[in-house]
């Protein structure tokens, strides 16, 4: 027994109540100084030494040492090492807390020591983690101690607290994968060498729960598996710990296969798992029946399917799986019932995760009901051979469900037959006796789309006649016929997927469509109403693949390869279904070929293959002309295959001759081997004969030996007999000697001499006889010795001879066996080579037969090709004529479309209607984070709609164009750039954007560097047109950039020097320092709004103009609000004045191109504006309110237009109700949180769309302009009008009325000039220069008369131009 075990046995308490706390009293010295039992060695730990932060753990443990006391882990290590090395008792080793009396300092802890049980908190994480994760790891270990009841001084926690602690640990592991391995290592630590049975049992239970919820990483899977498996095989573990280890092992295998849980296990799941109880859930079938399925934390979808198949006694369940059926139930969102959406569930997903997601409040809040559904994944080729009743019933139910859902469009005849079959399968015969029930069944079993094609009575008669014809059939027959009809459809038994079109090379597919995949190929359907469009056979699909968001097919259409791409999240399922059907067809063909090869000889198989090729050729001839290209490619492939086959045939013939030579050589070698084997057999017979002779001689020797042994035995007996006789003779002699002595005494006494001599003779005879007996005994003994030596010699010779014979026999037998084995191996190799050569020869013969069959097929195909080429020429001529006709019709159609658009644009321009474009921006990230949803939709490219409060139908707004979030800046500019040309042609063009704050106005007008907006694109287009017309006209461009900030008009192009001087110290209204120029809003005689005093910057290039705009934008007022990070706090107007001179006619055009970025309206409650931002918001809303009043008055065609209510309306007076070509962009935010503001903006824009302007072209004759300049010059020289007074006289104030024509503008100008500039008449001006007034007046009068005469002359073309009339009217007024 180890030292630690003996020590623990000695110090273990005797009372049962303290059995769990014995480890705290292990040494009897101090609390917490314990010695854990011997732990199992982890073999895989050596490869993970670098993953453990042993040094950091040692340093942290050393920092936690107080008053010379080591932590429990180091005490344990020091105690165990000291006891193992010195043999001292633990008590003596632990007398000194610091270990000084123990005989040395404790060594640092290793990774193996870190994974030893401890009831003290760890100072840091066991693995190398980031600091924030290390702190969480320490808290996790405290939770494990609290759960197991190992924390020193802590009380036993309740079950609810224990489950809460376990759930927190699972939350850390599932949320942070970095802590998952740390959690496993901590559980290994607390189950490895844990002395307390109750604590060890709780730790293993927690280990089981963690293993069931999440697997370890790949780096630690081997280590964890080794530890759990070793604990399962350990004989020292208790039964309860072994059961927990076995459950942990099973859970670890399942979680490693299926991955971690997606949702945190609930309290109910944890309680059920720890108590060994399974939960239940309901799984529905397509016929609305259901079954209860038991599950736990680790039950996957595949296991649930197998369990459910066992409940319903379904054996062939490989093609069935679970789906999530989503059914919309909110009547407000879906007024009409929508079909269920079935989402395929992964086989490795946990049932507990799916049930938790189905019970989530989000699913209920979205207005959908979800449930588990059991049905087939797809209909396979092998399903037709399955005869299991339950399988057929479920297949029928699913096929019927798909048909009634409209997945299989059929004609009316098929629909009537299928309705009759379904009625018979559902109710049997006799239902036609109840007309109401029969009609209800027809309406149920006929799809709505087909049912509306003819009256109900016709359906009743048609289905009734078919139903009566089925009276003799059973319900099973009706189901079988129903499924047979579906299988005969091209798209029968298909699996359907909803996709969106991304790339369609042929241009025939709608944006949204449904793909159906079955054993015949891929089928395309229009979704609503479902309509069959096109099919692609499997042999036409060359390649396919998928990603997480799309799927593509490379397939042949009309003989040409095209790539189709569709957007879907089920791309993997689509590819899996397609690959499955391809594999089934290939296996079926392989089985047929194999069966034909086994059943028929080679020639018959070749004939069958040729017959099949002829049938294919016949099918090709019956095809349409679109198949010709495919047939030509097939012929080319066959030609290439024939050439390859001929080459292969030549190579095969050469190989065959070589094989024959090799075969002959092998046959000769085989004959030699046979002769050699015959000789070896003869020698083997001779050896066997010699062996038999040796055995015979050995038998004879054995017989001789037996005879010798018998003779020896007889001699021994004889010698024994002679010895007995000699002994008798000696005894008799002794008796005679005694008698002789007695007689001698008697003779002495009687002195009888004669008697003595007789006795003496008798004695001599007895002695002679005794000597003879002795000699006979000696001779017998000598003979016996001789016989014994002879027997020993014979035995020795027999043994040596027998040994030699045995050795020779064994050596000969071993040599013979080796030779026979070598010959057998060689013979096997030769026979195998001969068989292989024979198989190759047979294969070559088959290939030759196939090549001959292919050659015959090629000849037939060549003849077919000639026929097809002849037909192709005929069809090519027809197609060429049709193509020419189509090109002509297409050209005429395009010309008509262009002409219609031009006429429409000309009509709209003539009417002067303001064009209004609507642009909907995309949703922003923070809006999606706040769970805001889109509320604005675009039914078509001219309409915007949205639901409004409790209204049942959406509100719709029509505009000239609608741009969705998918449209780019380039798309927006394409419909706008024609206005740039109008500005160059002399029109007043205005583009402005309106909408709430944050709706994308500034982005539309200006954009950014990556996506420039209308202004930079318009500038580029303007200078591009100027460069294009460089040989026809000469242009000059001037730009103004103004900002309306809090009702104050600011010049953004004012030079910085002037701005600094005007705003410097001491600058004031009455001081002599320079001040900012005063900006006045006026209107020129043509009705164009002009800002007097604004910086008028001349530009000559695109870059110069863009630089000026960027400088002005840098000075614009912007701020950040709760609704917009960069909110514009002012209105911005950029005006480009373009003056062009036609080099041929010398006509002068003056155009104006304005880009107006209005500040967005905002609600203070939403934007959170305070302080200065609040003032800005109030000023913006005030200006936009005044603009709304102007629009309302213009829309109502009121005579009074309140332009003068605000500076913004004064600036835009020529754009709204004036003489400009105006384009308005209404920018809308798409979310429901901004629906009120979006609705106001759309109503606002709808009113603007009703306003009509009188767009006029500003073009004047060069002679008239020259005369006007001369009149102005002589006026100035005569002192009648100064330059300042002239400018003031030409301009007028903005009036509260429409100004649509130059005449009205001139009238308004004169009237307003009198009011605006009093005292600017002739008399006041003349009075300023009395000395030269007379001469100058006369000169001016002469010039005026000349100008009047020139202006009264007819203009070019015989008509009076508007410019000349304006000049005359101005002269008369003057």
TrEMBL record:
Source organism phylogeny: Eukaryota, Viridiplantae, Chlorophyta, core chlorophytes, Chlorophyceae
PANTHER family registered for this protein in UniProt: KINESIN-LIKE PROTEIN (PTHR47972:SF16), KINESIN-LIKE PROTEIN KLP-3 (PTHR47972)
The Kinesin motor domain, residue ranges: 913-1251
Pfam families (alphabetical): FERM_M, IRS, Kinesin, MyTH4
Location(s), subcellular: Cytoplasm
Coiled coil among keywords: yes
Single Gene Ontology BP annotation: microtubule-based movement
Domain spans labelled MyTH4: 117-274
Coiled coil: 624-889
Species this protein is from: Tetradesmus obliquus
UniProt xrefs under CDD domains: FERM_B-lobe, FERM_C_KCBP, KISc_C_terminal
Keywords: ATP-binding, Coiled coil, Cytoplasm, Motor protein, Nucleotide-binding
Main location, first listed in the record: cytoplasm
Family: Belongs to the TRAFAC class myosin-kinesin ATPase superfamily. Kinesin family.
Gene Ontology cellular component annotations, sorted alphabetically: cytoplasm; cytoskeleton
Binding residue positions for ATP: 995-1002
Composition-biased stretches (Polar residues): 1364-1374
Transmembrane segments: none
Highest taxon in the source lineage: Eukaryota
GO molecular function, one term: ATP binding
Limits of the FERM domain: 279-590
Listed Low complexity bias regions: 85-98, 1301-1322
Name of this chain's protein: Kinesin motor domain-containing protein
Chain intervals for the UniProt region annotation (Disordered): 1-49, 80-109, 1301-1337, 1351-1374
């Amino acid at each position: 027994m180890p030292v630690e075990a003996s020590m623990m046995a000695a110090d273990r308490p005797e009372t049962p109540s303290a059995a769990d706390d014995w480890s705290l009293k292990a040494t009897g010295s101090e609390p917490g100084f314990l010695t854990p039992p011997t732990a199992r060695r982890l073999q895989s730990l050596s490869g993970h030494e670098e993953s453990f932060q042993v040094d950091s753990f040692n340093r942290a443990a050393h920092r936690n040492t107080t008053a010379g006391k080591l932590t429990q882990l180091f005490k344990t290590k020091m105690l165990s090492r000291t006891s193992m090395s010195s043999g001292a008792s633990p008590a003596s080793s632990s007398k000194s807390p610091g270990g000084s009396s123990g005989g040395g300092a404790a060594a640092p802890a290793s990774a193996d020591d870190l994974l030893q049980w401890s009831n003290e908190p760890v100072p840091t994480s066991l693995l190398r983690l980031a600091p924030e994760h290390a702190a969480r790891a320490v808290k996790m270990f405290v939770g494990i101690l609290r759960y197991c009841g190992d924390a020193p001084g802590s009380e036993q926690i309740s079950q609810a607290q224990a489950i809460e602690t376990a759930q927190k640990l699972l939350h850390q592991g599932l949320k942070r994968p970095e802590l998952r391995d740390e959690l496993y290592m901590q559980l290994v630590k607390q189950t490895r060498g844990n002395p307390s049975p109750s604590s060890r049992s709780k730790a293993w239970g927690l280990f089981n729960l963690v293993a069931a919820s999440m697997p370890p990483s790949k780096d630690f899977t081997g280590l964890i598996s080794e530890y759990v498996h070793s604990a399962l095989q350990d004989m020292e573990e208790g039964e309860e710990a072994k059961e927990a280890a076995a459950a942990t092992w099973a859970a670890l295998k399942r979680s490693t296969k299926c991955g971690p849980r997606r949702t945190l296990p609930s309290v109910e799941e944890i309680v059920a798992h720890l108590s060994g109880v399974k939960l239940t859930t309901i799984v529905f079938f397509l016929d609305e029946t259901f079954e209860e399925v038991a599950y736990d934390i680790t039950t996957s979808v595949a296991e649930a399917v197998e369990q459910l198949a066992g409940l319903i006694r379904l054996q062939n369940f490989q093609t069935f799986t679970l789906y999530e059926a989503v059914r919309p139930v909110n009547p407000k969102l879906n007024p009409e019932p929508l079909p269920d959406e079935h989402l395929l569930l992964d086989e490795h997903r946990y049932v507990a995760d799916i049930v938790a997601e189905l019970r989530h409040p989000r699913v209920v809040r979205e207005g959908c009901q979800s449930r588990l559904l059991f049905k087939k994944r797809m209909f396979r080729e092998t399903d037709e051979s399955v005869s299991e009743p339950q399988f057929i019933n479920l297949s029928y139910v699913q096929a019927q469900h798909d048909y009634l859902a409209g997945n299989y469009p059929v004609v009316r005849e098929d629909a009537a037959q299928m309705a009759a079959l379904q009625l018979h399968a559902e109710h049997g015969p006799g239902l036609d006796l109840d007309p109401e029930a029969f009609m209800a069944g027809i309406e149920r079993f006929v799809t709505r789309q087909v049912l509306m094609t003819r009256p109900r009575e016709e359906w009743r008669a048609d289905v009734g006649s078919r139903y009566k014809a089925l009276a003799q059939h059973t319900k099973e027959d009706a189901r079988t016929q129903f499924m047979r009809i579906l299988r005969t459809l091209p798209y029968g038994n298909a699996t359907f997927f909803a996709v969106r079109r991304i790339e369609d090379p042929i241009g025939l597919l709608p944006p949204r469509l449904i793909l159906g995949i079955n054993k015949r190929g891929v089928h395309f359907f229009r979704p609503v109403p479902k309509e069959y469009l096109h099919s692609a056979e499997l042999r036409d699909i060359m390649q396919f693949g998928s990603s997480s968001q799309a799927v593509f097919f490379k397939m042949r259409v009309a003989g040409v390869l095209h790539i189709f791409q569709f957007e879907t999240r089920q791309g993997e399922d689509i590819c899996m279904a397609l690959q499955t059907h391809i594999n089934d067809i290939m296996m079926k063909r392989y089985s047929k070929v194999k069966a034909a090869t086994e059943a028929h000889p080679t020639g018959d198989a070749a004939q069958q293959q040729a017959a099949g090729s002829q049938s294919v050729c016949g099918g090709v001839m019956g095809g349409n002309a679109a198949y010709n290209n495919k047939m030509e490619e097939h012929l080319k492939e066959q030609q290439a295959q024939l050439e390859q086959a001929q080459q292969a045939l030549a190579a095969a013939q050469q190989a065959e001759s070589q094989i024959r030579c090799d075969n002959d050589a092998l046959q000769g070698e085989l004959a030699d081997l046979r002769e050699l084997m015959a000789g070896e057999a003869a020698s083997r017979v001779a050896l066997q004969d010699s062996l038999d002779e040796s055995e015979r001689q050995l038998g004879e020797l054995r017989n001789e030996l037996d005879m010798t042994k018998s003779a020896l035995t007889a001699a021994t007996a004889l010698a024994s007999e002679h010895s007995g006789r000699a002994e008798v003779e000696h005894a008799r002699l002794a008796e005679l000697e005694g008698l002789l002595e007695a007689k001698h005494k008697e003779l002495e006494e009687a002195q009888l001499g004669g008697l003595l001599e007789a006795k003496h003779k008798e004695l001599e005879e007895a002695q002679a006889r005794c000597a003879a007996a002795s000699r006979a005994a000696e001779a017998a003994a000598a003979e016996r010795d001789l016989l014994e030596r002879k027997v020993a010699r014979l035995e020795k010779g027999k043994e040596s001879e027998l040994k030699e014979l045995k050795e020779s026999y064994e050596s000969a037998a071993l040599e013979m066996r080796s030779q026979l084995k070598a010959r057998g191996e060689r013979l096997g190799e030769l026979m195998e080579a001969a068989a292989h050569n024979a198989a190759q020869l047979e294969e070559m013969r088959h290939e030759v037969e196939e090549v001959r069959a292919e050659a015959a097929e090629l000849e037939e195909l060549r003849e077919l090709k000639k026929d097809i080429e002849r037909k192709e020429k005929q069809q090519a001529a027809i197609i060429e004529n049709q193509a020419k006709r189509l090109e002509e019709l297409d050209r005429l159609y395009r010309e008509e479309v262009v002409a219609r658009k031009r006429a429409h644009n000309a009509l709209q321009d003539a009417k002067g209607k303001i064009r209004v474009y609507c642009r909907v921006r995309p949703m922003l990230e923070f809006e999606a984070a706040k769970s805001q949803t889109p509320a604005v939709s675009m039914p078509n490219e001219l309409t915007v709609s949205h639901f409004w409060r409790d209204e049942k139908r959406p509100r719709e707004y029509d505009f000239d164009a609608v741009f969705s979030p998918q449209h780019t800046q380039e798309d927006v500019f394409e419909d706008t750039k024609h206005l740039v040309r109008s500005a160059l042609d002399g029109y007043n063009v205005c583009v402005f954007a309106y909408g709430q704050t944050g709706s994308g106005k500034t982005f539309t007008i200006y954009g950014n560097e990556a996506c420039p907006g209308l202004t930079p694109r318009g500038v580029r287009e303007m200078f591009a047109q100027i460069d294009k017309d460089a040989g026809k006209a000469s242009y000059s461009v001037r730009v103004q950039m103004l900002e309306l900030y809090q009702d104050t008009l600011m010049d953004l192009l004012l030079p910085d020097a002037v701005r600094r001087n005007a705003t410097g110290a001491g600058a004031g209204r009455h001081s002599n320092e320079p001040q900012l120029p005063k900006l006045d809003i006026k209107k020129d005689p043509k009705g164009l709004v002009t800002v007097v005093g604004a910086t008028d910057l001349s530009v000559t290039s695109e870059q110069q103009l863009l630089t000026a705009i960027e400088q002005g934008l840098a000075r614009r007022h912007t701020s950040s609000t709760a609704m917009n990070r960069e909110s514009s706090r002012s209105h911005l107007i950029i005006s480009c004045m373009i003056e062009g001179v036609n080099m041929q006619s010398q006509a002068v055009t003056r155009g104006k191109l304005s880009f107006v970025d209005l500040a967005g309206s905002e609600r203070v409650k939403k934007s959170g504006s305070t302080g200065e931002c609040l003032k800005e918001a109030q000023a913006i809303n005030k200006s936009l309110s005044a603009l709304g009043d102007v629009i309302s008055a213009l829309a109502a065609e009121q005579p009074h237009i309140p332009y003068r209510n605000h500076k913004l309306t004064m600036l835009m007076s020529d754009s709204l109700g004036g003489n400009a070509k105006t384009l308005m962009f209404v920018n809308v935010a798409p979310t429901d949180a901004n629906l009120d503001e979006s609705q106001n903006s759309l109503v606002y824009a709808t009113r603007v769309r009703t306003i009509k302007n009188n767009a006029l072209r500003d073009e004047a004759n060069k002679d008239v302009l020259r005369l006007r300049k001369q009149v102005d010059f002589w006026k100035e020289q005569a002192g009648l009008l100064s330059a300042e007074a002239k400018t003031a006289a030409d301009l007028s104030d903005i009036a509260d009325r429409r100004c649509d024509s130059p005449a009205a503008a001139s009238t308004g100008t004169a009237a307003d000039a009198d009011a605006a500039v009093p005292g600017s008449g002739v008399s006041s001006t003349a009075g300023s220069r009395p000395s030269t007034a007379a001469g100058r007046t006369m000169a001016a009068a002469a010039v005026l008369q000349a100008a009047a005469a020139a202006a009264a002359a007819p203009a070019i073309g015989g008509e009076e131009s508007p410019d000349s009339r304006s000049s005359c009217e101005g002269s008369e007024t003057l």
